[in-house]
Structure formats: structure tokens, C-alpha cells
Amino acid sequence: MPFILDHNRMLIEAEFERKDGTWRKARLWVDTGNPDFLISEEFAQDMGIGIDTGNAGQIAERQMKVRIGSKPVNFDGIKVVVGSGIQWLFNTMQIDGNVPSTVLQKYQVVFDYPLQQIILAEPGILTPRGVRSPARINPVTGIVQMDAVIDGENYSFALDNGSSFSFVSDDMVAKLIQRNPKWLSSKGAVGCANIWGYWPEEETWPLLRLPVFQWGNVTITDAVIAGLPPFFRGNTDVGTWYSRKSARPVNGFLGPNVFKAYRVEIVYADSAVYFEKGTGTDIQDMDMVGLTLRPLEDQRWAVIGIVNKDGKPIVEGIEKGDILLQVGNLKTTGATMGTVIDALRGTPGERKILLLEREGKPFTVKAEVERFL
């Protein structure tokens, strides 16, 4: 079935059967990086799913009948977590929930980014295509990881198509920059590196473009990674945190900005991932107006950072805390994150007219698109 990409996140349509036998349409976020079925409070109430709303979650009281592309999909035995207090997450993608890794691992899965199609097949039905890379898969969580070589050193990364970007520790990025000062780098989460605006210090994150590296048996070129500082969940680095759900320790996770030029096929039963490259690349993914944004509960967008260059803000006249109301003709309130970020993209030197609000007063800024990496 087809999918759409919004802020690099894969969104599909599904149907769920209510208690009374009627079917409810739902929009889901395909997420190889999360083993839990994360749903909105509104969706849980409408479906009559009786679950604990605490962070631990639990198995739903009844088996859910789910259809994707008119075919039944097995959600049996999946832990359900209601996203209480994070309504902004569902608003920014305009979704009801996700398709977690624990569901995906029951199938042979194809994410065909060039054709924007997803395939869920019973194991053994499809003949795999592309370059085969061995993978490690956690049988409990369904998290997929593959080993990598960057600048002559060995690493391991989870494959996370539910993330908007690729993230490692800031220490790893700092080490690579120190060893390779000619590699392109910048500071501040712009574009799809602006993951949500709710992770610590997004406006200061280091970004680095890797000219080439090996991931499994695939050679990846012109990929950007972002460095995360130790964060709130036990003040741990991203690799340590993510390793709690992977089969073996990982250094972080790679998102669609690395592999969306490919048809990606995961054969869970064979512990393998196949990559088949399509035509075209997107190396201008960081040509942006230099703002880092955060979605608010009222579906407006707050500026949390203005990217600096040579010690000076790229965009003048905007301050942290300003509300972004409009980009060109796009009214941003209620728009998805991908729509807002795409509106800030352009050709370097192009000027975007931004309508903002500060302390209840609207004002306009002409902001220039910059190439950050």
C-alpha cells in the first residue's frame, strides 16, 4: 500500500474494529524503533481500549482486529501505551498511533522509499531483492541493528525508520570532527534533525555530513548525523539508552535521511536487510531558514533556537519564544511538522517571508535560506 513521508516519517492508513463491530479509520506512523503500540488518548477512548495510562503500559484487554491495505495485520500480544501528556506528538503528525517493531517483525517488510510503497508479507512469500546485509534482531523488541565502519572504526546502529533523522552521541560527532576537520559540520537542529523540539538543547546539537561510510554491505554517501548530549532518561548517552532495546549495544540509530533513496527490505526470519538503491539523492536536505522549532499543545509553533554561523544568528529579528504563524502562504498553526519544515526549505539565497508573534503582537521578517551542510 502507499505511504506518505512527513518530516521523514512514514505514515499509512489503517482500520481498527471497535467493540460494537464497527470499523474506525486510523492514521499510523510506521516505527521500527519502538516496540510499544503508542496511541493517543482520543483513539484509546474511541476504541474502548481499557489499559493503564502509566508509562509502563500493558497488553490490551482484548485482541484488536486491524486491517492495513484491506488485509488483516496481527497486533496480538502487543504492549499498548497511551501517550498521555504528549498530544503534541500526535498533532504534529496528525496520527492516532504507530505500527511498532513488534508487529513488523511478524512479517517480511519492504519500505520502498523511491516508490513510496510499503509491503507486509507473510515470511517466505517474497524473494528478497538488493544487497544483503546481515543484521542482529532482538527477538523481544523487533529492533534491527547492523554493524558499520566510519573513518576506519567499527560501530553498530539500529535501523529506525520511525525517527526523522540519524542520531549518535555528541562525543562521537566531536571525535569525528576533530579527526576530519574538512568534513562539513554545523550546530543547531535544522530540517529533519529538528526531531520534536522537546529533546534537550536541540538548538545546540552538532551536525556532521559523512562523505562515505559502510553500513552492513551497503556504501552510504553524503549522510548527515546529529550528536545528542546525555539526556533526561537517567542522563545517559543515546547509545546506552537505545541499547536497552537492541540485541547488542549500539552507538545510536540511523533514520530515513540515510536510506530513503533505497528500497529497504527486512527479512526478520533470516536476520537480514536488503538494500536496492533508486534514482536520485537528496543532498540538499539542509538548505533551510535556520530555525529550530517546537510544537505546542495548541498546535502553534514556537521558535526555540536560531542557528548561529560565525558566532552570529543566521536569521535576524527573531528571538527564542517567538511564535511562527506563517511561512509564505502557509499558515503553520495546525500544520504537520513536515509541512512546516518543508516550507522553510528553499534555494540558498532565497528569501522567505515569515509572520511571527511576540507577546501577542505580530511582526514580519524576511529570512534567507542558507546551506548548512
Description of the molecule:
With 373 residues, the chain is mainly beta. The chain has 3 domains: 4-104, Acid Proteases (Cathepsin D, subunit A, domain 1), CATH 2.40.70.10; 126-277, Acid Proteases (Cathepsin D, subunit A, domain 1, Beta Barrel); 287-371, PDZ domain (Pdz3 Domain). Helix content is 12%, strand content 41%. The protein has 7 helices and 32 strands. The strands form 7 sheets. Strands 1, 2, 3, 6, 7 and 9 form a 6-stranded mixed sheet that branches. A 6-stranded mixed beta barrel has the order 14-15-20-16-19-18. A hairpin with a 5-residue loop joins strand 2 and strand 3. The longest helix has 10 residues, at 170-179. It is globular, with a radius of gyration of 20 Å. The two termini are 34 Å apart. The mean pLDDT is 92.
Write the layout of secondary structure elements.
Elements: E1 4-6, E2 9-17, E3 23-30, E4 37-39, H1 41-47, E5 58-59, E6 65-68, E7 71-74, E8 79-82, H2 87-93, E9 97-99, H3 101-104, E10 108-112, E11 117-121, E12 131-134, E13 136-137, E14 144-150, E15 153-159, E16 167-169, H4 170-179, E17 185-187, E18 206-215, E19 218-228, H5 238-242, E20 252-254, H6 256-259, E21 262-267, E22 272-277, E23 287-288, E24 291-295, E25 301-306, E26 308-309, E27 312-313, E28 323-327, E29 330-331, H7 337-343, E30 351-358, E31 361-368, E32 370-371
Parallel strand pairs: 3-9, 4-8, 15-20, 16-19
Antiparallel strand pairs: 1-2, 2-3, 2-6, 5-8, 6-7, 10-11, 10-21, 12-22, 13-14, 14-15, 14-18, 16-20, 17-18, 18-19, 21-22, 23-32, 24-25, 25-28, 26-27, 28-29, 28-30, 30-31
